[in-house]
Model the fold of this input.
Amino acid sequence: MFRLDGRTALVTGASQGIGEAVARRLAEQGARVVLAARNEEKLRSVAAEIEAAGGRALPFALDVADPAAAAERLKTLPEEFAAVDVLVNNAGITADNLLARMSLEDWERVLRTNLTGAYVLTKELLRGMMRRRWGRIVSVSSVVGLMGNAGQANYAASKAGLIGFSKSLARELGSRNITVNVVAPGYVETAMTAALAEASRDELTAGIALKRLGTPDDVAWAVAYLASEEAGYVTGHVLNVSGGLYI
Done:
């Protein structure tokens, strides 16, 4: 189930967290995986572990916050990994502040990385999907893009933008057998949440129906489903993976 044998996937933000978990899961499901992020050292480590487990992975230094350079960089993919069938737009940053104190630089930096970066990669790679008449585009948004969050106007705007972007693309590309979907995670276990005091963690989980934080693997399985043949009749959908934080 959810096998991706013979497919090639590119995952941005693949050096850690959700992106790393997604890359590992897609490799386990049989895909050749391009690991894209800025930290090439971390990418090499993840790629080595995937290869040691019997998968195929290519560490690929890429900065989605530099749109022109990113588009050119994609043209240097080696032949074995160049025909990307599955694109996972996961790279993202935060620069939180109340709007009254938010600089234009922080607004534009978050939008450029989280939203414009997805636009650039998707535009560059969808031509090949259209020629092959098969493709899966999955963008990692957030429940913040659905419900908002004080102090994150820039981040929420970028994540809501991914949803509108994906729904529009789903209508454009459906006739080419290309699906476009979104995964919207809630609070996920990270190094930052692990360092929180017990009272703070309890406060975070209090509003979650399942009474626990999510894991990167919870999100990775959702992406694996949407990338699979089994999800071939699902497009324009936002899959809420928040444990019931947003209902």
Summary: DSSP finds ten helices and seven strands in the chain. The mean pLDDT is 96. The two ends are 28 Å apart (CA to CA). The longest helix spans residues 104-132.
